[in-house]
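Repro:
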Amino acid sequence: MGEFSAGKSTLANLLLGTSYLPVQVVATQLPPVLISKGDGAPYRVDLEGGQHPVDLAALAEVPLENTAHIHIFSGAELLDRCDLIDMPGISDPNMSPEVWQRLISVVDGVIWCSHATQAWRQSEASVWGQMDPALYDNSILLLTRIDKLISQHDRGRVIRRVRKETEGLFAHCLPISLLQATDDQSDIATWEDSGGSAFARALAEVIAMMAPGPGARKAAVRSVSIPGLAPQTSPDGPISPRRVTPRRVPGTVRTSSQNSLVDRHQIKLSRASANLPSSDPPFH
C-alpha cells in the first residue's frame, strides 16, 4: 500500500519479474488488480460478482464505478506461494476509499511503500491505523527511493525516525532503492547495497510465517522465490539476483524506463480463499 509515486511500479517488476500492466494505465484510475498463478484470460468482476472479459491493452476502459476488481494471471514463481493485489493509491481525491477497502478483509499481509524523502506521512499513518492489527506481523514497510537521500547521515536519520514511529506496526522496516535493485542486478555487492537482498529475505520470512505449522514454514522459506532473484538455498543463505525481463503488451507504448509501469498502485500479499472466485489459488 502507499501513496502515489512511491516506487510501487518498480516493486511490481521486481516481484513478478516482468511488466504486466500497460504503461498508459499509470495515468488512469483502476480498481484493484488481483494477480494469480496461471495462464487464464483476464477478466473483471463487477459489484454483483459477475465476470466480464477484459483486454490488457485497454484496462483504462474498465468501468471503475461498477468493478470490484480485475483478475489477471501470470507464471511468476512468487505466485506459487501467494496472490498479489495491485491497488489504487490511498489518497486519490477522485476515488472513494471503498474502491480499495473492498478487498481489505482478504488480505494476509501488506507491503507498504513510503517515499524516503517524505517517509511515513500522517496520511499514511492514519490509514494504517485503521487496519486490522493482525496484519502487523505479516507486513513490510519499504522506504523506497532511498537513493534520493544523498548522504548516509540523512538516510540514517530517516530510517531511525520511521522505525521509531512504526515500532510494532510492521514485521520489517527496510530502506531500498527499487530502481537500483531492478536495473542493476549484475553485481551481487550492488544488489546487496540496494536493499533488494534484505527485502527478499524479509518477504520470504513473512510468507513463511503465514504457512501452517513449523515444518511448512521452514519449507516455505527455502522455496519462496522472487522472479528477479535466484531461489534461496537456506533461510540465512545469500540471495543472488536474476535479470527482470520486461513484457510487451500489444497496442501499448513503453517509456524509456520499465520502472514507470504501475507507479500509482500498491502491491499487497493477499488471501484468495475468501470473497474471491473459487478458482483463485489459496495461500500456502
